[in-house]
Amino acid sequence: MANTWLGFGAIAIAVFLVMEFVAWAAHKYIMHGDWGWGWHESHHEPHEELFEKNDLYAVVFAGFAIALFALGRFGGLPVVTAIATGITLYGLFYFIVHDGLVHQRWPFRHIPHKGYAKRLVQAHRLHHAVKGREGCVSFGFLYAPPVEKLSAELKASGRVRAEQLAERQPHGLN
Ligand SMILES: [Zn+2]
Ligand SMILES: [Zn+2]
Questions:
Q1: Which of 32, 45, 126, 162 is the most buried (most CB within 10 A)?
Q2: Ligand with the closest atom to the CA of 39
Q3: Does the pLDDT at position 45 exceed 50?
Q4: What Pfam families does its record include (predicted)?
Protein backbone atom coordinates (compact mmCIF):
# COMPACT_ATOMS: atom_id res chain seq x y z
CA MET A 1 0.00 0.00 0.00
CA ALA A 2 2.82 2.39 0.91
CA ASN A 3 4.37 1.60 -2.46
CA THR A 4 1.17 2.58 -4.21
CA TRP A 5 1.14 5.98 -2.51
CA LEU A 6 4.81 6.48 -3.30
CA GLY A 7 3.96 5.72 -6.90
CA PHE A 8 1.16 8.30 -6.97
CA GLY A 9 3.48 10.84 -5.33
CA ALA A 10 6.12 10.17 -7.98
CA ILE A 11 3.52 10.63 -10.74
CA ALA A 12 2.38 13.94 -9.23
CA ILE A 13 5.99 15.20 -9.07
CA ALA A 14 6.71 14.04 -12.61
CA VAL A 15 3.58 15.82 -13.86
CA PHE A 16 4.63 18.97 -11.97
CA LEU A 17 7.92 18.93 -13.91
CA VAL A 18 6.25 18.13 -17.23
CA MET A 19 3.94 21.09 -16.62
CA GLU A 20 6.93 23.40 -16.94
CA PHE A 21 7.29 22.21 -20.52
CA VAL A 22 3.53 22.48 -21.12
CA ALA A 23 3.51 26.01 -19.67
CA TRP A 24 6.53 27.01 -21.78
CA ALA A 25 4.91 25.73 -24.97
CA ALA A 26 1.51 27.27 -24.16
CA HIS A 27 3.10 30.61 -23.32
CA LYS A 28 5.29 30.68 -26.43
CA TYR A 29 2.93 29.25 -29.04
CA ILE A 30 -0.58 29.95 -27.73
CA MET A 31 -0.40 33.05 -25.52
CA HIS A 32 2.11 34.82 -27.78
CA GLY A 33 0.53 33.23 -30.84
CA ASP A 34 -2.13 34.61 -33.13
CA TRP A 35 -5.21 33.48 -31.26
CA GLY A 36 -3.92 33.48 -27.67
CA TRP A 37 -2.49 36.99 -27.57
CA GLY A 38 -5.94 38.56 -27.15
CA TRP A 39 -6.05 37.37 -23.53
CA HIS A 40 -2.33 37.46 -22.79
CA GLU A 41 -1.74 41.03 -24.01
CA SER A 42 -3.36 42.33 -20.82
CA HIS A 43 -0.45 40.78 -18.89
CA HIS A 44 2.09 42.72 -20.94
CA GLU A 45 0.49 46.14 -20.57
CA PRO A 46 0.59 48.36 -17.48
CA HIS A 47 -2.80 48.68 -15.79
CA GLU A 48 -4.51 49.69 -12.56
CA GLU A 49 -7.24 47.05 -12.36
CA LEU A 50 -6.97 44.09 -10.04
CA PHE A 51 -7.67 41.50 -12.74
CA GLU A 52 -6.27 40.95 -16.19
CA LYS A 53 -7.96 39.20 -19.11
CA ASN A 54 -4.90 36.95 -18.95
CA ASP A 55 -6.26 35.52 -15.67
CA LEU A 56 -8.78 33.61 -17.80
CA TYR A 57 -5.93 31.24 -18.67
CA ALA A 58 -5.67 30.33 -14.98
CA VAL A 59 -9.43 29.71 -14.95
CA VAL A 60 -9.14 27.40 -17.97
CA PHE A 61 -6.23 25.45 -16.45
CA ALA A 62 -8.04 25.19 -13.11
CA GLY A 63 -11.19 23.95 -14.86
CA PHE A 64 -9.12 21.30 -16.64
CA ALA A 65 -7.57 20.16 -13.32
CA ILE A 66 -11.00 20.05 -11.63
CA ALA A 67 -12.37 17.92 -14.47
CA LEU A 68 -9.45 15.51 -14.02
CA PHE A 69 -10.02 15.39 -10.24
CA ALA A 70 -13.66 14.52 -10.89
CA LEU A 71 -12.69 11.84 -13.39
CA GLY A 72 -10.18 10.38 -10.93
CA ARG A 73 -12.61 10.40 -8.04
CA PHE A 74 -15.82 9.28 -9.71
CA GLY A 75 -14.20 7.14 -12.35
CA GLY A 76 -12.17 5.31 -9.70
CA LEU A 77 -8.90 6.26 -11.42
CA PRO A 78 -6.36 7.29 -8.76
CA VAL A 79 -3.66 7.75 -11.43
CA VAL A 80 -5.76 10.55 -12.92
CA THR A 81 -6.09 12.09 -9.44
CA ALA A 82 -2.28 12.00 -9.13
CA ILE A 83 -1.95 13.76 -12.51
CA ALA A 84 -4.50 16.39 -11.46
CA THR A 85 -2.54 16.90 -8.23
CA GLY A 86 0.68 17.58 -10.17
CA ILE A 87 -1.08 20.09 -12.44
CA THR A 88 -2.65 21.84 -9.44
CA LEU A 89 0.67 22.06 -7.59
CA TYR A 90 2.28 23.67 -10.63
CA GLY A 91 -0.61 26.14 -10.88
CA LEU A 92 -0.27 27.03 -7.21
CA PHE A 93 3.48 27.49 -7.53
CA TYR A 94 2.99 29.66 -10.61
CA PHE A 95 0.29 31.70 -8.90
CA ILE A 96 2.34 32.34 -5.74
CA VAL A 97 5.70 32.96 -7.40
CA HIS A 98 4.65 34.60 -10.70
CA ASP A 99 1.76 36.72 -9.49
CA GLY A 100 3.04 37.29 -5.95
CA LEU A 101 6.81 37.35 -5.92
CA VAL A 102 7.51 38.57 -9.46
CA HIS A 103 4.56 40.87 -10.19
CA GLN A 104 3.70 41.86 -6.61
CA ARG A 105 -0.04 41.57 -7.15
CA TRP A 106 -0.29 41.38 -3.41
CA PRO A 107 2.26 42.76 -0.94
CA PHE A 108 4.86 40.05 -1.12
CA ARG A 109 7.59 41.46 1.04
CA HIS A 110 10.38 39.06 0.24
CA ILE A 111 12.58 40.00 -2.69
CA PRO A 112 15.23 37.36 -3.34
CA HIS A 113 18.77 38.63 -3.72
CA LYS A 114 20.62 35.47 -4.48
CA GLY A 115 20.51 32.00 -5.93
CA TYR A 116 17.79 30.30 -7.91
CA ALA A 117 14.95 32.50 -6.65
CA LYS A 118 16.71 35.65 -7.81
CA ARG A 119 17.45 34.11 -11.21
CA LEU A 120 13.83 33.03 -11.59
CA VAL A 121 12.54 36.54 -10.86
CA GLN A 122 15.06 38.18 -13.20
CA ALA A 123 14.40 35.71 -15.99
CA HIS A 124 10.69 36.49 -15.89
CA ARG A 125 11.28 40.24 -15.69
CA LEU A 126 13.30 39.89 -18.87
CA HIS A 127 10.27 38.22 -20.45
CA HIS A 128 8.57 41.55 -19.87
CA ALA A 129 11.48 43.62 -21.20
CA VAL A 130 10.09 43.75 -24.73
CA LYS A 131 6.94 45.63 -25.64
CA GLY A 132 4.37 43.55 -27.51
CA ARG A 133 4.29 39.88 -28.38
CA GLU A 134 7.26 39.60 -30.74
CA GLY A 135 10.90 39.14 -29.79
CA CYS A 136 10.27 38.09 -26.18
CA VAL A 137 12.57 35.69 -24.34
CA SER A 138 12.15 33.36 -21.36
CA PHE A 139 8.75 31.72 -21.87
CA GLY A 140 9.34 29.06 -19.22
CA PHE A 141 9.21 29.74 -15.53
CA LEU A 142 10.66 27.05 -13.25
CA TYR A 143 13.63 26.57 -15.50
CA ALA A 144 15.23 30.01 -15.41
CA PRO A 145 18.23 30.46 -17.71
CA PRO A 146 21.03 32.74 -16.50
CA VAL A 147 20.29 36.47 -16.93
CA GLU A 148 23.38 36.96 -19.10
CA LYS A 149 22.12 34.43 -21.61
CA LEU A 150 18.67 36.05 -21.80
CA SER A 151 20.14 39.54 -22.06
CA ALA A 152 22.31 38.40 -24.94
CA GLU A 153 19.23 36.93 -26.68
CA LEU A 154 17.38 40.19 -26.15
CA LYS A 155 20.23 42.26 -27.52
CA ALA A 156 20.40 39.99 -30.53
CA SER A 157 16.68 40.56 -31.18
CA GLY A 158 17.23 44.31 -30.76
CA ARG A 159 13.81 44.93 -29.27
CA VAL A 160 14.63 45.78 -25.68
CA ARG A 161 12.74 48.49 -23.92
CA ALA A 162 15.89 49.67 -22.21
CA GLU A 163 14.08 51.41 -19.38
CA GLN A 164 12.44 48.15 -18.42
CA LEU A 165 15.53 46.00 -18.09
CA ALA A 166 15.47 44.16 -14.83
CA GLU A 167 18.66 45.64 -13.41
CA ARG A 168 17.51 49.22 -13.75
CA GLN A 169 13.95 48.96 -12.57
CA PRO A 170 13.52 46.12 -10.12
CA HIS A 171 9.90 46.87 -9.16
CA GLY A 172 6.52 47.37 -10.65
CA LEU A 173 6.70 45.65 -14.02
CA ASN A 174 3.42 44.34 -15.30
ZN1 LIG B 1 4.14 36.59 -22.12
ZN1 LIG C 1 4.52 37.85 -16.03
A1: 126
A2: 1
A3: yes
A4: FA_hydroxylase
Three-state secondary structure along 126-147?
HHCCECCCCCCCCCCCCCCCCH
- Supply the range of the domain harboring residue 147: 115-164
pTM of the predicted model over 0.90 = no
Q: Which ligand is the nearest neighbour of the Cα of 27?
A: 1
Tens digit of each residue's pLDDT (9 = 90 or more) over 90-107: 999 999 999 999 999 987
Q: Which of 53, 73, 102 is the last residue of a domain?
A: 102
The Å distance, Cα 40 to ligand 2 centre, comes to 10
- Give the number of the ligand closest to the Cα of residue 104: 2
Q: How far is the CA of 139 from the centre of ligand 2 (A)?
A: 9
Q: What is the distance in A from the centroid of ligand 1 to the CA of 83? A: 26
Q: Which of 124, 117, 116, 102 is nearest to 171 (CA)?
A: 102
Whether 129 is in a domain gets the answer: yes
What pLDDT is recorded for position 163? 43
| Ligand in closest contact with the CA of 173 | 2
Higher pLDDT: 109 or 40? It is: 40
- Residue finishing a domain among 70, 102, 134: 102
Please indicate, yes or no, whether residues 32 and 85 belong to a single structural domain of this protein.
Answer: yes
